[in-house]
Amino acid sequence: MSSGDKQEYKLTRISADYWRVTIDHPPFNIFGPQSIPMLDQVVTEIERDATVKVVVFDSAVPGFFQTHFDFVPPLETTTSMAPGSTGLPPLPDIFVRLTRSSVVTIASIRGRASGVGSELALACDMRFASREKAVLSQFEIGGGFTPGGGPMVRLPRLIGRGRALEVMLSGNDYPGELAERYGYVNRAIPDAELDEFVDTLARRISSFDKQSLADIKQMVNASTLPSNTEVAAEWSSFIASVQRPAAQRAITELMGLGLQKDPDVEVNLPRYTAKVNARH
Amino acid sequence: MSSGDKQEYKLTRISADYWRVTIDHPPFNIFGPQSIPMLDQVVTEIERDATVKVVVFDSAVPGFFQTHFDFVPPLETTTSMAPGSTGLPPLPDIFVRLTRSSVVTIASIRGRASGVGSELALACDMRFASREKAVLSQFEIGGGFTPGGGPMVRLPRLIGRGRALEVMLSGNDYPGELAERYGYVNRAIPDAELDEFVDTLARRISSFDKQSLADIKQMVNASTLPSNTEVAAEWSSFIASVQRPAAQRAITELMGLGLQKDPDVEVNLPRYTAKVNARH
Amino acid sequence: MSSGDKQEYKLTRISADYWRVTIDHPPFNIFGPQSIPMLDQVVTEIERDATVKVVVFDSAVPGFFQTHFDFVPPLETTTSMAPGSTGLPPLPDIFVRLTRSSVVTIASIRGRASGVGSELALACDMRFASREKAVLSQFEIGGGFTPGGGPMVRLPRLIGRGRALEVMLSGNDYPGELAERYGYVNRAIPDAELDEFVDTLARRISSFDKQSLADIKQMVNASTLPSNTEVAAEWSSFIASVQRPAAQRAITELMGLGLQKDPDVEVNLPRYTAKVNARH
Fold it and tell me: How far apart are the CA of B219 and the nearest CA of chain C, in angstroms?
């Protein structure tokens, strides 16, 4: 695994049946090609363990749950990777496996969940957001391309056509309370209570019968998950669009303004995507 | 009909086109094998009547709309019953017939609607809950088994994958206002206004053209109801899981703690399901 | 085009990529057979333009976004029209083309959106409502017939079976805030802020890459739009039901009470539909 010397996904076995995966890639929890094998390894461990029932995803980096794809490495670094066990390219493969896994997954969102961060949250079974400190977004349209990791197929099923189109066509920020109103997260919880709320819920679920948890999830999946064909189509749309001139220009300009370097750009992404799309 | 000397579903013809079915099986409105032919008879009367347009389901028992399946009779009492007119086993058969009926059904929920009570409400066309006194839940996972009467196929279509998984994997209580936020009920109404609200709505609907009411419901059903195959799969999941050792142990322990006898257990079910699932 | 001397849909090109369509048919923005070719022309212009990205629909008539179908002209005026490019009758054809168009459409709802007005809003990609001044409804059942322009197939997918049945079986009014809670609109915005909110959003979207906007919309459409067969079935249901005696009687009585003439009837439609359906 060419993941360098830093494991971005820190797996903690709180107990045999309750694990925590903490995203730790400061300063912004950016997700790059090198993150793929690391997240893949975590998901593989989840799949192979016969005991674990619940996994909580959270972040160790203040201000960020997980943000967008890393625009520095060449796209080929990602597109040249071998497909995963579902036959899908690695990133959609990982998210599909999370949704299909018999293990229950909970996203505990504090800070920005933009792009891949929102997609990871949408691949979890439940999402709880800090009322004061969580922000979800699919900002991609502001960079001139489409999302690729699931929201085009998962978000409409979760929050309906109108709100899903708004989220993805505006590229705007959705803070905790608004995200709850839209159904983008299960609930927005006061920040001071979020950790205990999620921990209590996770412990409760992890005390239940593993087989019945799996049975319930599998039956719910049958009427709610997109097909692999739809997931693949979304990824193809992302790969095609991100190579078009409009995206290349917008991304170059965003990088020039300080994307991935200046916290102000990462924190106020909708303002900067507006800037690079102003009449030119 | 071997329903004993007490009719648990009291049918009141408020007018030719507006009926009320009041659940009256104190002290907890438990639903047992003996309830099945009684509810079946009520649904059959609804199906055969050429005039009725609206039926409201409510409860005569303080604190309970309708609670869970009776664990005292042997399972065979239920599984040996002949299938209903849909070809499904009796309980899912009754709920499917309610959803497909041309008559409009409204659940007026005051008190606990756990397990079968929540499932009956989900089989109705609309649900209104007392803001202060209604509590919905699918507690089954806390007993080591899966739901069987519809929520695994109906709840995700109603409230989305994330919230449906939370409800069924946590087995927690959802009071009126939270149930409204999740879309689990249409609306939570202040308790003092609930009866008049539902009565006004029912009278209004019952004044409209019966054929057009049926046409609208049928067309909405086409894109929203699960197939009978899915309904059957959920029932099979329940029957299989409830016979597994994990469920047998949890149910025995719950009964030992006072389930079906002690009001404290019925009213605080999530606390007691936590207790019997604590590390052992 | 036999639309008389008044264009009911006023098209303003705010910029090459951001248009506004203002409904201007005082006093109630009633939609009649003569409106069909006018709205068709606007939609055709949207389809044929290579540059436009966003179209906002709003109203110039105080108190009304767009209200119901005109009951004065004989039904044959509508049913004798040639089908549109989708092969569907003209009104459902127009709405289907709006939903499938690569252009992003936003309904800015101030005043009543009853019947066709609600259907036009549901055919848009997003809906924002004045918190104080918007009212949505599908009042048709109160006239003894079923909706025809989309809500039977679009509303359940947007807001779920329970709330969609309530809206269409009750024929009641849904003011802005309640419409938001139900997901009937994306958001209810304080009236004083609505215009700026929608304008800011529309300008933002119109600054983005046209191809990526279209890609996102198309992929969301794949999992959210009804088939043309379902759309056709709804229209047939409307045409059949509106010719039945129950509808003919109710419409005649509503017209007698002042429908399409007296503002009190248009503004308090649920009260008048109750009146004509009182026991007789």
Answer: 6
